[in-house]
Each structure stands twice: as structure tokens, then as C-alpha cells.
């Protein structure tokens, strides 16, 4: 069945339908990873977005147990070529069947290189995936212009608190759309991790007397999370050590008077170099974000830059002045190096007082 990707600027790509045949409008973003497509599909930070994979062949090892959450979150999936016959000893199915099972529409057979160049040149834009051959462009374009992701954090967070047992430090993880490997990275280091829904009051978290607080990644515009920002301000004012990743990094900045803005096309992939400003060392990082903290509006009495993106100079982390708080924009749990930035979890444990 033919399918069409219609962009907000009127560009139309024609390809083949994969997955569900339902129509979807979403924000179109691209990911430069050569592998890890299942982690991309199941990353809650992609809620409200349809993902273009720039690597030309996707799906050659099928569906494996490497999911970052219990289900996929992307609105749509866009690839050049989809492998129909995967080969891997861990393979449990095909991407095509996975997309159908979870009612996710997609399109293959289009020039994803040309599409990515459009998004890089004009910036991230909204689009529609449809199998309707009689689509009306004049009717669709206003709908694309009006689309916003809205409050997606409430869709991806957990419903009730849950605990990963451990014998070490007790960590409260605020789930803003957390990838599984964040809690696992802490749990593997002996931590007992209690995962809280995004709307949990700061008082509830602090009443549990955690040794440390983890703020997770998540989807959407950080400025939409007004109530969460208010609660994070209360966490900041406590003396509990805090480590934050991605959306959590942005929300802590907003909670302490800094600002964020939307990037032209964001950082999404497993090959982004970041420099630790305290050592000068560069690490390969995994990233997935469309917003960034404005370093020009930082108050050095509150926070100072700790990491910087080597490619474009944007902020990749903050160290909070006079506080046991540090935050990063990238994903140290995602193993792109593969263990380049895993030391940040060890740093967090040291902030909490070490292994015991």
C-alpha cells in the first residue's frame, strides 16, 4: 500500500506503508544512530514525535529484549529500507509486526537523506503520515501548522510508585518519562531505587528521606511542565544530592531561574561528542532532545556550565554552586561509548556518601 509523508512546508514524499495504516500528525525529527532502533522506538522522550532514521537499513536484527520501556512511544516511524527478514539469535519478531501490534503508522522507501537535509535546513517541522491517496494538501497544511505535542510527560510517567530493591544508597527517581536503564544503572551499583510518578509532590519524596534524588529524561517542551518545575524548586532547596538527565536537567535550570529555547533540529543519535569542562576530556554520548538551556542567562551564583557540545557549543550539563547537584543534557545510561560517561552514576553515588 502506498503511503505519503506530508511536511508542514508542503513537501510530499511517497513511499510504502509499514505498520498501522491509520493517519497521524506529529512533529518530524531525525535520529542519526546506526543501531539501537528498538531503544529509539521505546524511548518515552519520543512521545509526540515521528522519527526518521538516517541510517538506510533498519530492522536487520529484528525485535530483541532491548526495550527502554514497556511499549513504543513514537507517533510514527520513517525509514529508507526496512529489513523484512531479520537475523539474530535474540530475535523475537520483525519491526513490521511490532508496529502493527502497537498501532504505529510508518513509511519506508522514501529518500530519508533528502528528508533529513530539509529538516536540517528549515528546522524541525510537523508532518502527516497517511495512506489516503485523495489527500487534500490545502486542507492538511493548516492542521500541520496547528499541531503541538502538548503535555506529554503525563502520558509517559508511571501510575504508581515502584521499588527496585537494593542494599546500598536509597535513590528517589522522579519519572518524567524515564528510560529503564537509568534505574538499572543505579540498581546495578547497589542502590535501592524508588520510582515516583511525575506529579508526586516534593514533600512526599523528601519525607521518604532518600540519600539522593534522580530527575529523569522525558518528552516535550520543558516549559509546559509548570507544576513539576515548582516541585523541583522545592527539591533544589533541600540538601539532598540531585542528579538530573535530559528533561530533568532542563527543568532544574528552569526551576532555578534560567531559561531554555527550542533548537533548530535538536540532537538525536548515539554519536554526539561532549567535553567535561573540569577535565577537558571528550566523551561520546547518546542524545535525544530538541530544547537546550541558555547559558547566557545563567546566574553563576546558581550554576555554571559543566559540559559543552563539541559540535555546536551548546550546553550539555551544569554544576550547581554550593549544592550537591549536577545535571547533564545527554544520556550516560545509554552506553554509546559504550561506557564512556557511566562514571557520572559513580559520581552521584560519591555525592551521596559512597557505597555504604
Written account of the structure:
The protein has about 350 residues and is α/β, with parallel strands linked by helices. The protein folds into two domains: about 1-145, Glucose Oxidase, domain 1; about 155-350, Class I glutamine amidotransferase (GATase) domain (Rossmann fold). It contains ten helices and 19 strands. The protein has a ten-stranded mixed β-sheet with strand order 10-12-11-13-14-19-18-17-15-16, with helices on both faces. Strands 1-2-8-6-4-3-9 form a seven-stranded mixed beta barrel. Strands 5-7 form a two-stranded parallel ribbon. A hairpin with a 5-residue loop joins strand 17 and strand 18 (about 315-320).
Label this structure with key terms.
single chain; globular; seven-stranded mixed beta barrel; 2 domains; ten-stranded mixed β-sheet; 356 residues; 23% helix; alpha/beta; Glucose Oxidase, domain 1; Rossmann fold
Spatial strand sequence of the major β-sheet: 10-12-11-13-14-19-18-17-15-16
N-to-C SSE string, H for helix and E for strand: EEEHEEEEHEHEHHEEHEHEHEHEEEEEH
Structural class, by secondary structure, is alpha/beta
Quote the CATH topology of the largest domain: Rossmann fold
Q: Overall pLDDT, averaged?
A: 95
The CATH superfamily of the largest domain appears as: Class I glutamine amidotransferase (GATase) domain
| Percentage of residues in DSSP E strands | 25-35%
Mind telling me which CATH architecture of the largest domain this is?
3-Layer(aba) Sandwich
Task: Describe the largest sheet.
Answer: 10 strands, mixed
Task: Give the overall shape, derived from the CA principal axes.
Answer: globular
Q: What's the number of helices?
A: 10
Total tally of structural domains: 2
State the low-pLDDT regions, or none. Answer: none
Spatial extent as radius of gyration? 20 Å
Tell me, what is the CATH class of the largest domain? Alpha Beta
Give the helix proportion (percent range).
Answer: 10-25%
Through-space gap between termini: 59 Å
Q: How many strands?
A: 19
Amino acid at each position: 500500500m502506498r503511503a505519503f509523508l506530508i511536511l508542514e512546508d508542503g513537501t510530499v514524499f511517497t513511499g510504502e506503508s509499514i505498520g498501522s495504516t491509520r493517519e497521524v500528525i506529529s512533529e518530524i525529527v531525525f535520529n542519526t544512530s546506526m543501531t539501537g532502533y528498538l531503544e529509539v522506538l521505546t524511548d518515552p522522550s519520543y512521545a509526540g514525535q515521528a522519527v526518521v532514521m538516517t541510517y538506510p537499513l533498519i530492522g536487520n536484527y529484528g525485535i530483541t529484549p532491548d526495550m527502554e520501556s514497556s511499549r513504543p512511544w513514537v507517533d510514527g516511524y520513517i525509514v529508507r529500507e526496512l529489513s523484512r527478514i531479520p537475523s539474530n539469535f535474540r530475535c523475537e519478531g520483525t519491526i513490521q509486526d511490532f508496529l502493527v501490534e502497537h498501532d504505529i503508522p510508518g513509511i519506508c522507501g522514501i529518500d530519508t537523506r533528502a528528508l533529513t537535509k530539509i529538516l536540517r535546513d528549515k528546522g524541525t517541522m510537523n508532518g502527516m503520515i497517511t495512506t489516503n491517496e485523495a489527500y487534500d494538501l490545502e486542507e492538511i497544511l493548516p492542521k500541520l501548522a496547528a499541531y503541538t505535542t502538548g503535555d506529554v510527560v503525563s502520558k509517559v510517567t508511571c501510575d504508581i510508585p515502584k521499588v527496585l530493591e537494593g542494599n546500598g544508597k536509597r535513590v528517589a527517581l522522579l519519572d518524567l518519562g524515564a528510560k529503564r536503564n537509568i534505574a538499572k544503572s543505579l540498581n546495578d551499583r547497589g542502590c535501592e531505587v524508588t520510582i515516583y510518578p511525575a506529579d508526586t509532590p516534593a514533600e512526599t519524596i523528601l519525607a521518604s528521606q532518600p540519600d539522593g534524588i534522580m530527575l529523569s529524561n522525558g518528552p516535550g517542551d520543558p516549559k509546559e511542565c509548570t507544576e513539576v518545575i515548582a516541585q523541583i524548586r522545592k527539591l533544589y532547596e533541600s540538601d539532598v544530592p540531585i542528579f538530573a538527565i535530559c528533561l530533568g536537567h532542563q527543568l532544574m535550570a528552569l526551576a532555578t531561574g534560567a531559561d531554555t529555547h527550542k533548537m533548530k533540529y535538536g540532537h538525536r543519535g548515539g554519536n554526539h561528542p561532549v567535553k567535561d569542562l573540569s577535565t577537558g576530556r571528550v566523551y561520546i554520548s547518546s542524545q535525544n532532545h530538541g530544547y537546550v538551556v541558555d547559558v547566557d542567562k545563567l546566574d553563576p551564583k546558581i550554576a555554571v556550565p559543566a559540559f559543552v557540545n563539541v559540535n555546536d557549543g551548546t550546553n550539555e550539563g551544569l554544576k550547581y554552586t554550593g549544592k550537591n547537584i549536577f545535571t547533564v543534557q545527554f544520556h550516560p545510561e545509554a552506553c554509546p561509548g559504550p561506557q564512556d560517561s557511566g562514571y557520572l552514576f559513580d559520581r552521584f553515588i560519591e555525592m551521596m556518601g559512597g557505597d555504604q
